[in-house]
Amino acid sequence: xxxxxxxxxxxxxxxxxxxxxxxxxxxxxxxxxxxxxxxxxxxxxxxxxxxxxxxxxxxxxxxxxxxxxxxxxxxxxxxxxxxxxxxxxxxxxxxxxxxxxxxxxxxxxxxxxxxxxxxxxxxxxxxxxxxxxxxxxxxxxxxxxxxxxxxxxxxxxxxxxxxxxxxxxxx
Length: 171
Prior knowledge:
CATH architecture: 3-Layer(aba) Sandwich
Strand content: 25-35%
Number of domains: 1
Strand order of the largest sheet: 4-3-2-5-6-7
Number of strands: 9
Structural class: alpha/beta
CATH class: Alpha Beta
Distance between the termini: 10 Å
Shape: globular
Largest sheet: 6 strands, mixed
Radius of gyration: 16 Å
CATH topology: Rossmann fold
Helix content: 25-40%
């Protein structure tokens, strides 16, 4: 890994929490009349972000929010996903697909694939960072920040992992 001096801090802990709070309020506004909203975190870091959004929703929303997880093989050329829920649980509900960074759109496209056979009320997407390098026609409904970067650059999202403080770095 490159030295920390080559990492540019994009969001600090407080700014990340502000973005999470704003996203949660947007979800609340768009789904106020719902009884339940499912937050589907794309593991690993999308799962951390989904949990953080759920914590805010549990404080502010009149609806129930449920956390579910999707684990995909990001290197596979076809959809290979493991889920920790029964697909029928999503029937006629709002599902919000959550990931940390939208880069090419492949991960979210695979996430969509999990729900193709479920009669959802609606499917929305959340990312903390939208990099604008899409190879797939994927747009986000809720984004913490949009960055125009070059392909060679990398975004590192740290969400209270392994004792490190929350941060988003560009390297």
